[in-house]
Amino acid sequence: MGLNVLVTPRSFAAHSSEPLDLLSDGGLTVLRNPHGRIMAKEEMIAQIAEADAVIVGVDPLDREVLEKAPRLKVIAKYGVGTDNIDMRFAQERGIKVTTTAGANTEAVADYAFALMLAAARRVLPIDKACREGDWTKRTAVDVNGRTLGLIGLGQIGKAVVRRAKGFGMQVLAYDAVRDEAFASAAGVRYAESVHDLLREADFVSLHVPLTDETRHMIGERELRLMKPTAVLINTARGGLVEEDALCEALKNGIIWGAGIDVFEKEPPDNPELLSLDRLVIGSHCAASTVQAVDKMGVMASRQVLNHLQQLNGVETE
What we know:
Helices cover 36% and strands 16% of the residues.
């Protein structure tokens, strides 16, 4: 019996054939997402039945889906967040789960900083007004020399620190696990609590996974702790921010602005968010650069091949 790998991300091998070549040269039959979008649960169930491996983006891989994949041996996450995967059930089934940690670090850090600059300097409303013939000057807030608060100081958070130093920013961080060596070398100061960080920071950027503990970690109370000139950035996961509370905070000038690349539902359920000129919106595209996409594709393909080759009695060529 030949081995099949289901590939769901639309950007997989979009700019280079290398990820696909690795899979086909390894003797795998590639099954592609036929819908041209994130698949619904029922669609995943239909596609995954004959898969021995899956390279997945944010499509659902909960217990109900995994129960319909009797041949599945490895899940290669095309990215780092695994909140769309039932990790406990995968472990029970002996299904290996990998991520492409590090492949998109620099791309996401770049985009976080792009959102920060755009929201602080009102780039989008100024651009829109100019296109309509309105050359009125609009006052914004500085980025240089201000305090950046990072909630989560993993690989991406650290990459954002490197960029912040070029802007002369003071960096404050909160993380459940502290990297004291990095903090000391990079001049990062740890906050004792998220609330302490929110009170002090001029910019707050989220870089934590979505868990039961972090869901809606930024809500009405937290937004009111922030400065009226503060900017909130989220390139991590939808669900970290309570979106209705953010909408009200932006409408009422509780904070200066926000740059949000990820929502609980994409596009977001609240249409009012789309009308706010204090909000810069992304389409979950922080990792979508040519270079990052190529790296993620190659890494995920190699992880699938390596695991299948390690299994006893499984030949991929």
